[in-house]
Design a protein that fits this description.
Elements (H helix, E strand, L loop, with lengths): L8 H14 L5 E2 L12 E2 L3 E4 L3 H13 L2 H21 L4 H15 L13 H19 L3 H15 L3 H21 L7 H27 L6 H9 L19 H20 L1 H16 L19 H16 L15 H14 L10 H25 L7 H15 L4 E6 L22 E5 L3 H10 L4 E6 L6 E4 L2 H9 L1
Parallel strand pairs: 4-5, 4-6
Antiparallel strand pairs: 1-3, 2-3, 6-7
Helix pairs in contact: 1-2, 2-3, 3-4, 3-5, 4-13, 5-6, 5-7, 6-8, 7-12, 10-11, 12-13, 16-17
Length: 490
């Protein structure tokens, strides 16, 4: 399978973060003509940066230093599978833990968007696995090693998915606190084991505050919040009310935030219960392989008396309940609990051993067929993906082809992007490198002639192109000479 081409708005934002970090900077100065470069899920003021927490961008930056950002994706998915295996070893016998980790690797590590895009959930899933793997070990014995792992997992979640990570981390820490309160003499052991973990968490909070300060000018103000204030009318949480329309400089950006996103918001608020059920069903379909993996869950009632099974169900139920307050829930929103999903699947498989009818082991007889069906499904996924029968993004392929053509041109290039009246708001061409002025190819929005003339004069050393994005196929031609000449005279 080839290295994926970015297509989704979020991917380009994460890649901007990667390019920024790989350049040795935490953020980039605002460009004097930033309005021409406005795009989705990035901020242009007070600095030019991705709106997202920094860890995914740092992982991609590590891959970029090694040769390509996707190497970071590959390594993070491998780390996720290893962390899930370690986590399950704290809950299950070693053989069952290995099988559960292999299920996770086959389901999420080959053909799905976590592996084949730049905006998956592998990083927070690995952090969640560390937190969940430390929990049963700390319930058995309080040791420095597990508290350090717990702190590292919390640090990953805080910089990957802060809200969801806070829910999972808070739940786990509450369970540990209650357990230690009920255990005689446990309080005397806590200071020695907790000090290294507290040092890690303190350093993490300090670095997060420093990053926020460099990007937004305020150590307590996240880039995500700056972006929401500047662009988003529909709030993230359902208890919040929609905000007044801000100033939009481009019709396509207004169409996305003030029209499409607000329409989605209205539907969700009108039918919150139905919307939540649809969100959970969509995520179950993703994690359970179009419901095939739901079969092992039938074995859970047979192991209900096991305290670890009930604890795992409590953790997952608490997390899913917290998702009711979020407007949208993509599969990577649930990524911190990825290990829990596959843990419960393995408990279900183990529960099959106790399913008997007239003395016959019915459940045991079902284990092998279900496993074979999953293996067959996995092979079909791989075949379809390698033969490109599962569909690719035409937009991503077109953008990559035009970008490659421009990279091969001598000198520096400037692309003025023109959208038609029926342009799809989900196909955005205007994304740039971290250092715009030094980039080989610069993508910009065409505005009015009056606004474009000083902009073209600023980039007068570049060869200027016009991209008509909604022609099929997209048409790239030299920019009208008279417009460029007027800019040069200016």
């Amino acid at each position: 399978m080839p290295v994926p081409n970015p297509a989704v708005h979020d991917e380009f934002s994460y890649l901007l973060g990667a390019d920024t970090f790989a350049s040795g900077r935490l953020t980039n100065p605002a460009h004097p003509f930033w309005i021409h470069f406005e795009s989705f899920h990035i901020i242009q003021q007070p600095t030019y940066a991705s709106k997202y927490p920094p860890l995914q961008g740092m992982v991609l930056a590590f891959g970029q230093i090694l040769g390509h950002p996707w190497i970071g994706v590959l390594l993070s998915v491998g780390a996720m599978c290893a962390a899930i295996c370690w986590m399950m070893q704290g809950w299950l016998p070693p053989s069952a833990a290995l099988i559960g980790a292999l299920l996770a690797a086959m389901r999420l590590g080959v053909t799905d968007y976590w592996m084949n895009s730049y905006w998956g959930g592998a990083v927070p899933a690995a952090g969640g696995a560390l937190v969940l793997g430390a929990l049963p070990r700390l319930l058995r014995r309080l040791r420095v090693r597990e508290t350090v792992v717990l702190a590292l997992g919390l640090a990953i979640l805080a910089n990957g998915r802060p809200f969801e990570g806070a829910i999972l981390g808070g739940t786990v820490c509450t369970i540990l606190l209650v357990a230690y309160i009920r255990r005689p003499g446990a309080w005397a052991e806590i200071p020695g084991a907790a000090i290294p973990a507290l040092a890690i968490l303190t350093a993490t909070l300090g670095l997060m505050a420093f990053y926020n300060f460099r990007v937004t000018g305020n150590p307590w103000r996240l880039p995500y919040l700056v972006h929401e204030e500047q662009y988003n009318m529909s709030p993230v949480f359902l208890w919040q009310k929609p905000k007044p329309e801000p100033v939009y400089h481009h019709p396509v950006i207004r169409q996305f935030w003030a029209v499409w996103d607000m329409q989605m918001d209205a539907v969700i608020r009108q039918h919150p219960i139905r919307g939540y059920i649809a969100k959970i069903a969509f995520n179950c379909q993703f994690y359970l392989g179009h419901w095939l993996l739901a079969a092992p869950l039938l074995g859970l009632p047979f192991v209900w008396k096991n305290r670890r099974v009930r604890l795992a169900l409590l953790l997952l139920a608490t997390y899913l309940a917290s998702m009711t307050v979020e407007k949208t829930v993509w599969p990577h929103y649930l990524s911190p609990t990825t290990g829990l999903v596959f843990l419960l699947l393995m408990y279900g498989f183990l529960g099959f051993r106790f399913w008997r009818s007239n003395g016959k082991p019915i459940g045991t007889a079902l284990t092998k067929p279900v496993g074979m069906m999953f293996a067959i499904q996995f092979i079909i996924y791989v075949v379809f993906a390698c033969l490109h029968l599962n569909g690719t993004s035409k937009f991503a392929d077109n953008r990559k082809a035009i970008a490659s053509r421009l990279e091969a041109e001598p000198g520096e290039q400037l692309v003025m992007v023109r959208y038609g009246p029926n342009h799809s708001i989900h196909e955005e061409w205007v994304y740039n490198r971290a250092d715009i002025d030094r980039a080989k190819v610069v993508w910009a929005r065409e505005m009015t002639p009056k606004e474009d003339q000083p902009f073209l004069a600023y980039f007068h050393r570049r060869k200027v192109w016009l991209l008509e994005a909604d022609v099929d196929p997209p048409r790239l031609t030299r920019y009208p000479a008279e417009t460029q000449l007027a800019a040069d005279k200016r």
